[in-house]
Amino acid sequence: MSMENFLIFIPTNLFRTYVHMRFLGLFLEHPKEKAKHWIQFGSMTFYFLLNSFGYILFHNPRVNILTNIVGLFVVSLSFLGNIKKKILSVCIIYALSMLCDVIVVISCVGFAVDRSISELLGVMTALLITVCELLAEKLIYKKKNPSFISPNWMFLFFIPLCSIGMIHLCIIDNLADRNFIVLVGIGLLVINIISFFLYSAMERTYLVNLENELLIQTSDIYRHQLDIIMKTQDQIRSLQHDMKYHIRALLAMAGSGNTEGMISYLEEMEKETANPDQYVDSGNKELDGNLNYLLKEANHKLKDVSVKIVVPSGAFTSSFDINVLLSNLLENAITASENTQEKMLHLKLITKKGLLYIEIENSYNGIINEEKGRFYTTKNNKAIHGFGLKNVKRIVEKHNGTLDITYSEERFRINIMLYLTNLVKEL
């Protein structure tokens, strides 16, 4: 192996080893113990050394295939999962790597590639594998939870694809300056490695910030619901303290046959026990907390808010999905209605014959951003906003429900039907 090829091969193989490690993480689960993270690092180092020495010493395709498969399998052992899944993951990853290698070789057929820079083909293969890994990673995460995908992630493909094109041009142009070509190849590889790690760090920061926002909102919901409970308990204790006086007054009215007075008195007692901040009391703790929090905001900002909740007094087994669905819909409806003169929001959440019906109607300013049946956000920062209806559609499809969106010049309405079979668990 020439010195030029050696200088290209080592960083290329190291980067490819890391990409394969990430690829395995899509199929297998990382261990949570910190001690086992060192085992993963050790297995990755073993894979890199085995593959590198096997390639440099023998430079034989069969040996190369063997060292790659054995090294990948050793790395897979540091992940969680059964042996069959690990073997299948290794086969899929290596088959995809071979496919990328074949594509690169075919793209250079008919062009004379100098042996001293033949490892540039390996750089192109590593970058193409990286593109495949990123695409698979985003598609899998997007299917699981699109909210946890950083915006503009598709721009990450721009750098490796452009690098592949530039290296390809250097090869087919058959430049005389080999040192320059090697420098270009190594430089592009380093740029891709740096951009890859920088984007990964930015994405982790984005996810941490998003999780923190969700935690803050969740804590606000629980705090608000706790305030409601404490206030209701205070009212009940106050009523219990004066109960003997109320009973005495009611007995006097009953003795004199003053039915109207008794009804009026009981209505006053009911008002004393009612909590104005408790809009929903369905018996579902997570649902009640979320709706009370959102409806408090709606009543604060809007003029006409009506709510009808009739759901089983059980616990939603998919409470996370239900709360994500209602939060997105109600936040969008409140924002849209707030910018109108009518400021109207109507919510119905009822169950009937094994089905859960959700109907939300609100006033809006008449501006609809719709294209081919898909609705897009009208908010200014489209990079942050715009995930609401996507999440709603994902959850509806997950539970085999239906989603119907209708609108007029002043009203926007969403009707959702979900099956209760897998949603509600009786207490």
Question: How would you characterize the overall build of this protein?
Answer:
The chain is built from 12 helices and 9 strands. With 427 residues, the protein is α+β, with helices and mostly antiparallel strands. The strands form 3 sheets. It has a 5-stranded mixed sheet, covered by helices on one side. A two-stranded antiparallel ribbon has the order 2-9. The protein is elongated, with a radius of gyration of 31 Å.
Helix and strand arrangement:
Elements: H1 3-27, H2 34-58, H3 61-76, H4 83-107, H5 120-144, H6 158-172, H7 178-241, H8 243-256, H9 259-273, H10 285-301, E1 304-310, E2 315-316, H11 319-338, E3 344-352, E4 355-363, E5 370-371, E6 374-375, H12 388-398, E7 402-407, E8 411-419, E9 424-425
Parallel strand pairs: 1-3
Antiparallel strand pairs: 2-9, 3-4, 4-8, 5-6, 7-8
Helix pairs in contact: 1-2, 1-4, 1-5, 1-7, 2-3, 3-4, 4-5, 5-6, 6-7, 7-10, 10-11, 11-12
Observed structural traits:
alpha+beta, five-stranded mixed β-sheet
Structural class: alpha+beta
Q: Strand-residue fraction?
A: 5-15%
Distance between the termini: 71 Å
Question: What is the total tally of β strands?
Answer: 9
Task: Calculate Rg over CA atoms.
Answer: 31 Å
Query: Which geometry do the CA atoms define?
Result: elongated
Residue-averaged pLDDT: 77
